[in-house]
Amino acid sequence: xxxxxxxxxxxxxxxxxxxxxxxxxxxxxxxxxxxxxxxxxxxxxxxxxxxxxxxxxxxxxxxxxxxxxxxxxxxxxxxxxxxxxxxxxxxxxxxxxx
Length: 98
Fold this sequence. Notes:
It is a single chain. The protein is 79% helix and 0% strand. It has three helices and no strands. It is elongated. The chain has helices at residues 16-41, 45-68, 71-97. By secondary structure, the protein is mainly alpha-helical. The protein starts with 15 loop residues before the first helix and ends with a helix.
């Protein structure tokens, strides 16, 4: 979302590190989408839990980078990080209770 605000023509001005963050952002979008498939469609509850931990780490990397570089990114992703934390808790509780 936040990277989408920049026009594609601006991407040539980003450093290599920021390019890695574009990749991390794209990967976390894919991880988010795939988690729903693993958890709901395939019923792979424990695998979905591990998958969600990896997603959480990617979001954390983006939030930490946002603290250092762009405060708006940090503020936009912090509620998302909290939500994924809660989803991870619910996910593991479903695994434990079933």
